[in-house]
Automatic annotation (TrEMBL), chain A:
Organism of derivation: Reyranella soli
Keywords in alphabetical order: ATP-binding, Cell membrane, Membrane, Nucleotide-binding, Transport
ABC transporter domain mapped to chain residues: 6-257
Membrane topology designation: Peripheral membrane protein
GO molecular function: ATP binding; ATP hydrolysis activity
Family under the similarity heading: Belongs to the ABC transporter superfamily.
Name by which UniProt lists this protein: ABC transporter ATP-binding protein
Main location (coarse class): membrane
From TrEMBL, chain B:
InterPro entries named in the record: AAA+_ATPase (IPR003593), ABC_transp_ATP-bind (IPR050319), ABC_transporter-like_ATP-bd (IPR003439), ABC_transporter-like_CS (IPR017871), Oligopep_ABC_C (IPR013563), P-loop_NTPase (IPR027417)
Alphabetical list of SUPFAM superfamilies matching this protein: P-loop containing nucleoside triphosphate hydrolases
Family, per entry: Belongs to the ABC transporter superfamily.
Alphabetized Pfam families for the sequence: ABC_tran (PF00005), oligo_HPY (PF08352)
UniProt subcellular location: Cell inner membrane
Protein's UniProt name: ABC transporter ATP-binding protein
GO BP annotation list: peptide transport; transmembrane transport
Source organism (scientific name): Reyranella soli
Topological type in the membrane: Peripheral membrane protein
PANTHER family: D,D-DIPEPTIDE TRANSPORT ATP-BINDING PROTEIN DDPF-RELATED (PTHR43776:SF7), TRANSPORT ATP-BINDING PROTEIN (PTHR43776)
Amino acid sequence: MTAPLLKVEDLTISLASDGGSLPLVKSLSFEIAAGETLCLVGESGCGKSLTALAIIGLLNRRIMRASGGGIFFEGRDLLSADAEAMRRLRGDRLAMVFQEPMTSLNPVQQVGRQISEVIVEHRGTSEREAEREAVRLLDLVRIPDAARRARDFPHQLSGGMRQRVMIAMALALRPALLIADEPTTALDVTIQAQVLALMDELRREFGTALLLITHDLGVVAEMADRVLVLYAGRAVEEAPVEQLFDQPTHPYTRGLLDAIRQLLKPDIERLAEIPGTVPVPAKLDRGCSFAERCGLAMPICGEKRPVLGPRGSRHSAACWLGHLPVEQPA
Amino acid sequence: MTPALEVAHLSKTFAARRGPFGLLGRRVVRAVEDVSFTVEASRTLALVGESGCGKTTIGRMVVRLAIPNAGSITVEGEDFTRLSGEALRRKRQRVQMVFQDPFACLNARMTAEAIVAEPLVNFGLGDAATRRRRVRQLFDQVGLPQTFLDRLPHHMSGGQRQRLGIARALAAKPAVIVADEAVAALDVSIRSQILNLLKDLQRETGVAYLFISHDLSVVRYLADEIAVMYLGRIVEKGPVRSVFDTPAHPYTQALIGAIPASHPRERRRRALLDGEVPSAAALPIGCPFRTRCPLATDICSREPPPLVTVRHGHAAACHHIHANEMTTGGTTT
Ligand SMILES: Nc1ncnc2c1ncn2[C@@H]1O[C@H](COP(=O)(O)OP(=O)(O)O)[C@@H](O)[C@H]1O
Ligand SMILES: Nc1ncnc2c1ncn2[C@@H]1O[C@H](COP(=O)(O)OP(=O)(O)O)[C@@H](O)[C@H]1O
Ligand code: SF4
Ligand SMILES: [Mg+2]
Ligand SMILES: [Mg+2]
C-alpha cells in the first residue's frame, strides 16, 4: 500500500491557560488517501475547526499548542515545519475554504485580482496570464459572466457566489488536499446542493483529496468516502460511509443519525432525543465523555475511557458496548 | 371556531437605495405580495422558502414589529391592523415571537428570571408574587432547572437560551407564537429537543404556531400545513403530507430535491435548481420563478400564475401544474 496523503498521528491541541493547559482535541489519529473525501462530523465545540487549523498551520500559536506524533503530509511533518514552509505549502499543496468567506476575502480588492495574485506569487506567471487564469477559474466554478464578475468586490456577490470564489481561489494552484470547514452551513439548501455538487466534480477532475468538516450528516451522506465522528475532542467512531449509515455502533453516532432520519419521516409521534448538552472542555475527564448523555451507559462507562477498537473492516468505535452486538431499529 | 390567526392579502414594500452609496436613487423592494393564510388554535403553519423571500417580514408584521402596506392581520377575530391604544396593547399580548438567536433579543445583563418576567411586567400581568410563581412554572414547563433563575444568558448553552426565549414568549399566554428560524442555529441533537418541546407546549396550551424556516427538512415533524414562498408570494400551500409527497409547484419540487440524502445510497450528485433568487427589487414579469424554472414557457413570462387548488386543501401557483404532475408523477423520494 502506498503512503497516505495525510496522516494525523496522536494529535492533541491544548489551550494555554493560567492554570496550565486545557486539552481541546485529544489524541486524534486519522489518514486521508489521495483523491479521497473524509468527512469530520460532530456538533459544535467538538474540535473540528481546531483540527483543520492545526493541519493548515493557522492555529493561534499564542494560545494554542498542537502536539503529539505528527501531521504527515506528502511525507513531511507539518507539526515541526516552520512558518515560512507552511506559508509556501498553503494555497499550493494545501488549501482551505471557511464557512464565512468574508473572513478570508479582502473586502477592498476585486475578486479576480485576489485569485490572480495567488497565482503570480506561487507560480511566478505574468499578471496578464494570471488574470486570464482567474477568469477561467471563476468560470469553472460557474460564476455567470465570469469576466465581468472578476472585477466585483466581495460585497457585490451573494453568499453562494463568494463561496464559489473561495473554491476557485483554493483550487487555483491544484492543491493535493482541500480542507473545507462547514463550507455550505451558511447557505440555503438549494445553493448548498450546487456548491456540494461543484466541489465533488472538481475533486474528481483534479484528483484533490477533501477533508470536509460538517455537523450535518445529510452532507456526509452526499459527499463522504469515509467518516470520522468526533465527540468532545475525541474520535468516537470511524467507518466507510455506507458502513457508518448501515451499522453505526457508537450511541452518539446513532443518535445523530436518528435525528436526521426521523425528521423526514411522516407521522413521527415524537423525535428521539440525545438528552443534555455537549460537555464544556475540562481538565479532568474520566470515563467516556458521552456517558452522561448515553441511554446505554453502564457503570464502567463513567470510570474508564473506552479506546477505539475494531468493529469490522476499516470500522472502529470507542464504546464499552463494543463487545455486545447492537440491535439496529428497522 | 375563530382561527387564532388570519392573514389576508398582506403586502409590504420597502424603499431601498440603489447603486453605491445610494447614488442611483431609490427603488421599491416588494418584500411581501398579496399573502393570505389561516392558522387555527393548536395548529402549526410552516412558512418556508430560500432567504430573502419575505418570511421574516411576514413574521414581523404579525407581531406588529412592522406595519403592512396593505391587507389585514386578524388575531382571534379582531383585525390587528385597525387597533390602537389600549386595545392594541391587549392584542399584542396575544401574539409573541421566538427568534433564531436569543442573544440578539435578550439583554445580556438581565437574569434569566428577569427576561422571562419582562413581558408580564410590560403587560401589567399579576403582582410581584404571582409573577414569581408564573416564572417558576414556566421554567418547569420548558425544562429549565430552577437553579438557572439568576443566570445570565451568556452563561447558558444555545439550547438553554432557546428554552428561555420560548418561556418568555409563553409568559403572557399568547394565542399565537411566531417562531422565526427558531432551530436554525442549534446542533442536531438540541434541535430535536426543542422541536419536541414546541410540540409538547402546543398540546398543553393550544397555542398556534407560525413556524418560519428556510430549511424545509425541519418543518415536517411540527407542521400541519406548509406555505412555500418565493419572492414575496406564496407559490404553494397545503397539508404537510400532501406538499411533501405530491408537491405541485416546480419550486417546491426543487426545494424538496435539494434536501441532502439521508443515506449515501440515495445521493444526488447534482443540483436540481440553477442560479439564485433574483432581487426582490427587480421582480420578473409574469411568474416570479420563471428565471429558474425548468418548465417555463411564453405564458410564464407574460402572466403571473394564480394560486389554484390541485387537491383538497392544497393549492399552487403555476401555469403548468398539470403537465408537471403528469411528467413527474409529483413524487419525491
Ligand atoms: N481561541 C479559543 N479560545 C478558547 N477556546 C477555544 C478557542 N477556539 C476553540 N476553543 C474551544 O475549543 C473547542 C473546540 O472548538 P472548535 O474546534 O472550534 O469546534 P468545532 O469546529 O467542532 O465547532 C470548543 O470547546 C471551543 O470553545
Ligand atoms: N428593513 C428593510 N429595508 C429594506 N429591505 C428589506 C428590509 N427588510 C427586508 N427587506 C428585503 O425584503 C426581502 C424579504 O426579506 P426577509 O423578510 O428578511 O426574507 P426572509 O426572512 O425570507 O429571508 C428581501 O429582499 C430583503 O432584502
Ligand atoms: S408558471 Fe411557468 S415559470 Fe412559473 S413555475 Fe410554473 S412553469 Fe415555471
Ligand atoms: Mg467549527
Ligand atoms: Mg428571515
